Amino acid sequence: LRQLGYELETLVDKERDAALGNGGLGRLASCFLDSMATQDLPAWGYGIRYQYGMFRQTVNDGFQHEHPDYWLNFGNPWEIERPYISYPIKFYGGVEKQIIDGHEVNKWVGGEDISAVAYDNPIPGWNTPTTINLRLWSAKPSREFDLESFNTGDYVQAILAKQRAETISSVLYPDDRTYQGKELRLKQQYFMVSATIQDIIRRYLVNHDSFDEFPNQVAVQLNDTHPSLAIPELLRLLIDEHGLSDTKAWEITSKVFSFTNHTVLVDALEKWPVDLLEKVLPRHMQIIYEINWKFISDLSQKRGEDFALFGRTSIIEETTEGKLVRMAHLAMVGCHTVNGVAEVHSELLKTRMFPDFYELAPEKFQNKTNGVTQRRWLAFSNPALRDLISSKLGGDSWIRELDMLHDLDKYAEDPEFQAQWRAIKLENKKKLAKLIEEKTGTVVSPNALFDIQVKRIHEYKRQLLNVFSVIHRYNKIKAATPEERKEMVPRVVVIGGKAAPGYDMAKRIIKLVCAVGEKVNNDPDVGDLLKLVFIPDYNVSSAEVIVPAAELSQHISTAGTEASGTSNMKFAMNGCLIIGTMDGSNVEIAEEIGKRNMFIFGANSADVPILRSERARFKPPPEFDGIVEQIRGGAFDWADFLNPVCDAVHGGADYYLLANDFEDYIRAQDLVDETYKDQAKWTTMSIKSTAGSGKFSSDRTIREYAKDIWGIEPCRRPEPGNPR
Questions:
Q1: Does residue 695 have an active-site annotation?
Q2: How far apart are alpha carbons 381 and 461 in whole angstroms?
Q3: Strands 220-223 and 257-260: what pairing?
Q4: 570 flagged as catalytic
Q5: pTM (2 d.p.)
Q6: 627-657: per-residue pLDDT in tens?
């Protein structure tokens, strides 16, 4: 490369991130693939090869704008196209009863046909010859070009089929506020699961001539409810295409699937209108009715005619606006195992989200606390810290066995080791300061405390509470004397994340962040004491700079709203201290590294329902009300546009309890400042944070899935022999 006049680092910066996932779920899947390869497990990943990803975010004058993410414009050198691996995918049409070999069978006929073409992405394990596969599906028309229509002058019709097909794998998470958006998202989900299940069956039949061994050879993990249609699709293929009886097909299917739930909000569970499913997937709707009938029949034999229980657990929900298919209930009925992703979350599945299902089949429920791959988020992203850790632990074996980090504990108060630790953090902060200037134009001091909150913009994640604390800090600085300002800890607050295109409130919160930043960053009285920046288009490449540089990371969701969270694990692993509520995996992080090494605040999940019921009578702290009035009064301009944000947290409307937690949050932030002044103490806490992160490796998570759910063991590829 040097001979060609290029530096490798420059070319790496030019490569766009693969636009294949959204936030935590997509990144978690990537960590799991890395761990499965490193653990030598015989596993595959499946997904959609999105042409444009979710969207590329720009922020102009504080407003989010969405643009296509042209990550495939110049191809993807890491993928292998498999044009000969292609499966037919059908939509619409109808179901006919036909007599075949003297038996009446249902046949899905008519409709629209497209093709799913495979693209393979090798996933190499660390320090092992094992490489597993991520197979992505791209939608193609069943025939490339309608020449007959073209020749008769209907030029538009000639290319419509191609456009309709390719739309399916164009954009991740299309805006589903419209009927057309809902239909496209449903087609995406079915497209992925149909191609995947067909591929799994084909690979299985290479070495088998019956389906008797299928449940022993195949385990499918449904990553949330989005792929739940895989259950009726496997049934359809076994019954309609391979001639199995309904009973045999259900016996096989119910042993194949397991389900990971990733939400704690009952209202967030996916539901599809029955009329939409009947239109797009008529055979599957028929099968879902049959699954539900069998489930309710079995339930009535066990519990009698308990119609209230039937209503609560039925896959079909009756509403005043029509019937809905509860996809989570379909997964609960069709899967042999259900798991949450943090201990607190898994308990909420039993008590709040699916209490009836837990009572009916408690043996189905497990916990699998999420993890992240230390190879990406520590060894690769933070090479200087990696080398320092390896020098103390006698090598790099910890990169595979993260529990070895516990041995760092004995160096936590070593002055020489602390000095090395701080020097590495300072260099990482300088890199982040450069990135901030490049992306926002704001110059920040690397000597300030770097306070980070990067995640999807959502009211429950409470970026708004963070902004309120920045306004509180700004007011304190403005009211302070020059002597008092000298005692204040300089702070750089970084917020980043995307708002869903249809999520109006999240977009207004981004605008507030930018408006407050504009005011604070240009106030000469404040100087370097406080900066607030919004980093646009937060992605993996940005995170690889942000995470190693962070000193304080905010995980401040209302207790009981975050299923797990994994960014907190990445930050803790890199010696960043956490300020947060006892929510999601924060609870287990506190158990591992000790509450004394975190800054915990806020109501606990048991108190939240009570506080919500009393919220209308709650009197917010005067400072909280004052900040709301500042925003309403135009202190940061855009008062009319920001009024709905104030309305959402004022009076009895404060669903996520910002006002209730505000004073305790400010107390925790004041404690952060006091602790940061004692750099020896802060560094001790930072080292202990890394030392206590061993549990949060995705290697541990995957080992638990393999042992407790999938029933598989490592299958290491033999070392390559002598090439001669």
A1: no
A2: 25
A3: parallel
A4: yes
A5: 0.93
A6: 999 999 999 999 999 999 999 998 778 999 9
